[in-house]
Amino acid sequence: MLDSIAFRFQKFAPLLLRFGLATVFLLFGVQKLINPSQTTVEIQLLLNFELADAAALSFYMGLFEILIALAFIVGLKVRFSALVSSLLISIFFISFLVKYGFSISPDLYRDIGLLGASMALFLLGAGPWSIDSLLRKKGYESR
User: Where are the domains of the chain?
Assistant: First the structure.
């Protein structure tokens, strides 16, 4: 019985992944723009950047994360956005590991979950309720 219910609603999986990841990326991006000092310090610690360089990187990362979130919300270029978000998450995950090694930090393991969700979205695609799907139906290829 649960299998038939899950099969019936399986088409909602990409939509839920898109909205979940969009929420995370939107909150992280807005946080970087509203409170840049926190992220700037983290970038300085992880990458040994100068203050001005870390502040600029923090600002542009905030904008970039908001753009990824918007792409996920509307379902435009979702596979590309998921691949880019996976790369972004991987870079910070590896930077954290190189700097601090393995730890029991929840931030470290949150990133593993986000990476898994991004890769799943890359494999699944945008789903039926997306601009990508609409463009595909009209004969445009959005990949």
Answer: 12-137
Residue indicated by tokens 């399986």: 10
pLDDT, one tens digit per residue, over 35-46 is 988 888 888 877
8 Å CB contact between 119 and 86: yes
Fill in the amino acid letter for 37: S
Residue tagged 């695609």 (tokens) = 125
> pLDDT tens for residues 119-132?
999 999 999 999 99
pLDDT at 33 over 80: yes
Q: Give 66-132 as a DSSP string.
A: HHHHHHHHHTSSHHHHHHHHHHHHHHHHHHHHHHH-S---HHHHHHHHHHHHHHHHHHH-S-SSSHH
Please give the C-alpha separations between residue 81 and each of 56, 60, 93, 101, in angstroms, as whole numbers. 22, 16, 18, 28
